[in-house]
Design a protein that fits this description.
The longest helix has 13 residues. About 15% of the residues lie in helices and about 35% in strands. A hairpin with an 8-residue loop joins strand 6 and strand 7. It has a domain of about 80 residues: Monooxygenase (Up-down Bundle), CATH 1.20.1280. Helix 4 packs parallel to helix 5. The chain contains eleven helices and 29 strands. InterPro entries: F-box-like_dom_sf, F-box_dom, WD40/YVTN_repeat-like_dom_sf, WD40_repeat_dom_sf, WD40_rpt.
C-alpha cells in the first residue's frame, strides 16, 4: 500500500517577533563550528585517538583546543603507551622533594597518579630520548657528585686543610659544610667518597656520609628545605687494627648499614643502629680489582642485599667483569646460615679477616659470585669451546669504569688497547692453542675488540633464594656492544636501565639499555680536543637523576636539565 502524497500547499510562514511600539529586531545567530557545536567531553573523546605529536599540533589551533589537548588523562595514556611505566626513570632511593611534583599532600582517597603531571613527565622522557638539555653557566670543578631532589651535593678530591661538602640549590644558592677531622699535622686530608642515605627519610631529613683519605667518616644531616642548618650526626676514626679501611673509593649507605670499598678492594661493614658508627666486619678479595660499583637495597627490615661489580683478571694480562651478591643481616638462624660462631665467612671473591659474634651485629651471611669469563676445569665439548672463544674475544687490556644497577652491568674499556707493536702480547698469544685463539687473534681484530669507544653490556640475573626449590645459579650474560662515543670513556653512571657516559673530549651520551639505543647529549668540546694531553690527566665524574645530568670534567661542573 503506497503512502499518500502530500498536498501541494505552501508551508506556514515563520514566526515573527512582535514588539508593540518598537522596531522589529531579529535574533543574533551564532555561527556553528567544531568548537561550539560539541561538548568538551566529545572533543576529549576524539583527542584520545590522536598521537602525542598530533596533540602537540592541536594546541596551536585555538585556546580551547590548547586547554583540552593538555588534559592530564590524555597524557597519562600517552605516557603509558609510549614509555610503559608510571614513573620517570633514574630515581635512586627515597628522596624528599620541595618542588611538590612527586610528593604532595593527598586528599582522602585520591590516588597518587592523579597528582602527577603526565604531560611534563612525557616531555622530560622525550628530552631524554632525543638528548635535548638546557645548559646553565658552569661552576667550579667538583669530583664527587650526589643528586638529592633539587639539591646537588659535591666535594672536591683535592687535599685541603678545610675539607668541605658543598650543597647547591639551583640556580645560585651554595652552602658549604665543613667536615671535621683529626689533625695530626702530617698531611692535608682529602675527600675520597660520598654516600647518600637511601632509606626512607624521616621528617624530611637527608643524611650524607663523607669519607676522608685518613679513614675517618663523618655523617651529616640536614633538611631538604634548609641545607644551611646541617649538623654533624656521627663521626668515626679508625683504629690501627682496621687501618686498611683508608682510601675509600666507593660507599653505599642505607641506615643503619654503611658499606665501604677501599682501593685495595677491602669491603668494610659498619653498624649505626646503636647511635655510633661501629665497624663490624671486613672482607678481603685477592681476585677482584677496581674499578667497581656498589648497589645496596633493603630486602626486609634489617636484611640487605649488596651487589658489587668489579674487574677480574684474565690470562694472559687482560681484564673482564664479575659480580658478587652479598646478603647482610643483623641476626642469623644457625640452621640456614653459612656462618657459625666458630667459623669465618668466605666466598669465591671475599674472605673475612676478623671474627665477630654474628648474633649481635650486622654481618654478611651468604654470597654468590658470577664472572663473565671463567676457564672451565677438565675437558670441554665443542659448544663450550665456541663459547670460550667468544668470551676470549671480549677480554680487555684495561678497564676505565664498570657500573651496575643490580640488573645490568656495563663495562668501559681503557685507552691502552692497541697491541700492534707489543711483542710480549704476541708472544703470549703464540703460546696459546690455535683452537683457543680462533680467527680473532690477529692484532687488527684485537684493536677493534678493545676499542675504548665501545661499551660492553651484560645482563645480571640473580634468582631469589628459596628453600622450597633449588635456587638457579646466577648468570652474567653478554648482551651487546654500544657504539657511538667518539672518544675514550672517562666515567659512567647507571640507574634504572639507563646509562650516561662521559668521554674524555667532553662528549656525553645517553643509552637506553633495554633497546640498545643511544643519543648524544653534548658534542665534543673543541677546546678539550685541542688540549687532549691536558685532559687525559683530569678525573671526570657524571651523575644523573630523572630530570638532569651533572658532570664534572676539566675543572667545571655542568648541569644539563631535561625538564625544559
Amino acid at each position: 500500500m503506497s503512502k499518500r502524497a502530500l498536498a501541494l500547499v505552501l508551508l506556514p510562514p515563520a514566526k515573527r517577533f512582535h514588539a508593540s511600539g518598537h522596531a522589529i529586531t531579529h535574533p543574533i545567530t551564532q555561527i556553528l563550528n567544531f568548537e561550539n557545536s560539541l561538548y568538551d567531553e566529545l572533543i576529549l573523546c576524539i583527542f584520545a585517538y590522536l598521537s602525542w605529536s598530533d596533540l602537540c599540533t592541536t594546541q596551536a589551533t585555538s585556546r580551547n583546543w590548547a586547554r583540552l589537548a593538555a588534559d592530564n588523562e590524555l597524557w597519562r595514556k600517552q605516557y603509558l603507551s609510549v614509555y610503559g611505566r608510571t614513573r620517570l626513570r633514574g630515581a635512586k632511593g627515597f628522596i624528599a622533594r620541595s618542588d611538590g611534583r612527586e610528593v604532595r599532600p593527598l586528599p582522602g582517597r585520591a590516588k597518587a597518579d592523579q597528582h602527577k603531571d603526565w604531560k611534563w613527565m612525557f616531555r622530560i622522557s622525550s628530552n631524554w630520548r632525543k638528548a635535548e638539555v638546557a645548559l646553565p653557566r658552569s661552576a667550579p670543578e667538583r669530583t664527587h657528585i650526589l643528586l638529592a631532589g633539587a639539591l646537588i651535593i659535591s666535594a672536591t678530591s683535592r687535599p685541603s686543610n678545610h675539607p668541605t661538602v658543598t650543597i647547591t640549590r639551583e640556580p645560585n644558592e651554595h652552602h658549604a659544610i665543613p667536615i671535621p677531622y683529626h689533625d695530626d699535622g702530617s698531611h692535608m686530608p682529602s675527600i675520597t667518597a660520598l654516600a647518600l642515605d637511601q632509606s626512607p627519610p624521616v621528617s624530611g631529613d637527608l643524611s650524607v656520609a663523607c669519607f676522608l683519605q685518613t679513614g675517618e667518616i663523618s655523617i651529616t644531616e640536614f633538611k631538604h628545605t634548609a641545607p644551611s642548618n646541617a649538623i654533624q650526626k656521627y663521626t668515626y676514626q679508625p683504629t690501627q687494627r682496621i687501618s686498611r679501611s683508608q682510601s675509600v673509593i666507593h660507599a653505599a649507605y642505607y641506615y643503619p648499614l654503611l658499606v665501604t670499598l677501599s682501593s685495595d678492594f677491602s669491603l668494610s661493614i659498619y653498624d649505626i643502629s646503636s647511635g655510633v658508627i661501629r665497624h663490624t666486619q671486613t672482607l678481603s678479595s685477592f681476585t677482584s680489582y677496581p674499578p667497581a660499583s656498589l648497589v645496596l637495597s633493603c630486602l626486609s627490615p634489617m636484611v640487605f642485599k649488596l651487589v658489587v661489580a668489579y674487574s677480574v683478571p684474565v690470562y694472559p694480562r687482560h681484564w673482564s667483569i664479575g659480580a658478587t651478591e652479598l646478603i647482610i643481616a643483623s641476626s642469623v638462624d644457625s640452621s640456614t646460615s653459612t656462618l657459625s660462631g666458630s667459623t669465618l665467612f668466605s666466598s669465591a671473591s671475599f674472605r673475612e679477616d676478623y671474627k665477630y659474634p654474628v648474633s649481635s651485629t650486622i654481618s654478611v651471611i651468604s654470597s654468590r659470585t658470577i664472572r663473565a669469563f671463567d676457564l672451565p676445569t677438565g675437558w670441554v665439548d665443542d659448544t663450550s669451546l665456541r663459547a670460550m672463544r667468544e668470551q676470549w674475544g671480549r677480554k680487555l687490556s684495561s678497564i676505565a669504569d664498570a657500573q651496575t644497577d643490580g640488573k645490568w652491568v656495563i663495562l668501559a674499556p681503557g685507552q691502552n688497547y692497541s697491541f700492534d707493536n707489543d711483542e710480549s702480547h704476541m708472544n703470549a698469544h703464540a703460546n696459546l692453542p690455535a683452537s683457543m685463539l680462533g680467527s680473532s687473534s690477529s692484532s687488527s681484530a684485537s684493536a677493534r675488540l678493545h676499542s675504548p669507544n665501545i661499551l660492553q653490556l651484560y645482563r645480571l640475573i640473580l634468582p631469589i633464594h628459596s628453600s622450597s626449590i633449588s635456587a638457579s645459579p646466577p648468570k652474567l650474560t653478554f648482551v651487546r656492544t654500544l657504539h657511538g662515543q667518539t672518544s675514550p670513556i672517562l666515567s659512567l653512571a647507571l640507574a634504572d636501565g639507563r646509562c650516561v657516559s662521559l668521554g674524555r673530549n667532553g662528549s656525553i651520551w645517553v643509552w637506553d639499555l633495554e633497546g640498545g639505543t643511544g643519543a648524544e647529549v653534548t658534542p665534543a668540546d673543541e677546546s678539550l680536543v685541542e688540549n687532549m694531553g691536558r685532559v687525559l690527566t683530569t678525573m671526570g665524574t657524571v651523575s644523573f637523576d630523572e630530570r638532569r645530568i651533572v658532570s664534572a670534567h676539566a675543572g667545571k661542573v655542568v648541569v644539563r636539565r631535561f625538564d625544559i
